[in-house]
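Reviewers of the previous submission asked for a worked example of the structure-prediction workflow described in the proposal, so we include one complete record here. The input consisted solely of the amino acid sequence. No template or homolog information was supplied to the procedure at any stage.
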Amino acid sequence: QVQLVESGGGLVQAGGSLRLSCAASGRTVNNYAMGWFRQAPGKEREFVAVMSWSGSNTYYADSVKGRFTISTDNAKNTVRLQLNSLKPEDTAVYYCAAGLISRLQCGQGYYWGQGTQVTVSS
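From that input alone, the workflow returned the following structure tokens.
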């Protein structure tokens, strides 16, 4: 079993930055890649970024490339998502997930966190 707890969301003005964290726990957590997803009101959940714990494989959605950065802190079993140059359309609940890297890119995770709200004002 893997437990995921997100933190770091909040309200920020357009052009600002936030850093989200996902604390992962469980004996098998390092068997999985870690991903970030988001769901805006009235929209389907969408893939944002995914990364293996080794850092050797990293993928981003086109909509966030160059603005968001995913990283891992293996010592703390924490995955972070740095959000820069935020836009109002980035407003969503952001979720952390664990799973196979190919499946995460398709939105399929084995384990999910509860989500953290990010609101970007114009």
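The chain has a mean pLDDT of 95. We consider this example representative of the routine output the project will generate in years two and three.
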